[in-house]
Amino acid sequence: MTNPPSHPTCPTPHPTCPTPHSTCPTPHSGGPTPHSGGPTPHSGGPTPHSGGPTPHSAGPASHPTGPTPYLATPPPYPTAPPPDPTGQPYHRQDRTTGRHRWWRAWVGTLLLAVAYFFALLVLLAFSLGLGTALGAPELPDGGADLGPLGNTAMDLVSIAIALPLVLLATLWPARRPVGTVTSVTGRLRIGWLGRCLLAGLLPILLLTVTAFLLPDDSGDSGTWVGWRPFLTALAVLAVLVPLQAAAEEYVFRGWLLQAVGAFVRSPWLAVIPQAVLFAAAHGWGTRWGFLGLLVNGLVAGVLTIRTGGLEAAIALHVLNNLLAFGASAAVVDGLSSDETAADAPWSLALTAIVTDLLYAAIVLWFARRHKPQRLSAPSAPPAPGAHPARTA
């Protein structure tokens, strides 16, 4: 008689169990174990190494099969601070990208000055070549005498060439979109520019009437130049004066205002330096003339920050200069005068100050009604695992 098998009613370790983690008994479940009273691993009964699945069989592995986690290593290059998640005013636009470094504003200003100097040399060479080709006489300063209108045009172009240089400096070394020097929206807001031009009509009309009523200290009332020369001059001025005025705004209320604003939060601390430099750039004529230019720079700077862009400052500057150059073009040799706003007498400088303040009041009233964007859009937080931005 054959002996009955060990544990005749005990099932094999895993005859029907699909995985080691199912409800079936495992080699270490309540059934007999290799160390229980049942058969040992060397007996005739089934053992944990029999045909059933074991913890190390073809079933699912006990360890995850996905990517092995690892510790992130620091980047091999320095990184910039993350962009500010909140919107920034105009003078703080350098802080919106997360690429701010203390040296960018200084290096950009230096490169801007050097590039402008070489651009002036190129323009001077062009002027001399043009004068030689036309047989124009030579001016005392060595330049070619292209006539009152031609010389005025060259003077306007010599300032207008600063505009593309500011845009290039914004790209590098500032390393931010060129539109950020125009407004907090990253573009020129044409609709708001039109409203600012409309706001300047009444103040400029007041300035025009007052200027004609004020006595002329020189005693020379001027001689009408004639319609044809006057209209020709107006056509040239209408093209070049907006470029010249915009270039000055991009330099002083744009680049310099944001360069200082990269280090200070206070709008006034950012506005004052550019206003002083703006007045000084026109030369020293009279105390009242310097004061008038200083107030103009302060008003333009405050409006730029309060409205979030250069549109209000550009509109005021364009209207002022069109009036000044247009009045000079109306009289014989008026464009040949070397006088600027820095040479204004007290009466005219005081009228200009009142004009600027009236313009500012109208623009701020428009701003309360139309609410132009004053802060840049908040920066999105970096995506998880995103590579940090390089600093250069």
How would you summarize this macromolecular structure in one to three sentences?
With 392 residues, the protein is mainly alpha-helical. It is 50% helix and 0% strand. α8 runs antiparallel to α9.
Radius of gyration: 39 Å
What is the average per-residue confidence, as pLDDT, rounded to a whole number? 82
The rounded distance between the terminal residues' Cα atoms is 92 Å
Form type = globular
SS element count, helices: 10
- What does the largest sheet look like? none
Helix fraction bin: 40-55%
Order of helices and strands: HHHHHHHHHH
Number of strands: 0
| Percentage beta strand | under 5%
- The secondary structure category is mainly alpha
State the low-pLDDT regions, or none: 1-64, 68-72, 386-391
Structural summary, described in words:
It is a single chain. With 392 residues, this protein is an all-alpha fold. It is built from ten helices and no strands. The protein has helices spanning 102-134, 147-160, 162-171, 190-199, 201-213, 227-261, 267-281, 287-307, 311-329, 346-370. Helix 6 (227-261) runs antiparallel to helix 9, helix 7 (267-281) crosses helix 8 and helix 8 (287-307) runs parallel beside helix 10 (346-370). The longest helix is centred in the middle third of the chain and has 35 residues, at 227-261. The relative contact order is 0.13.
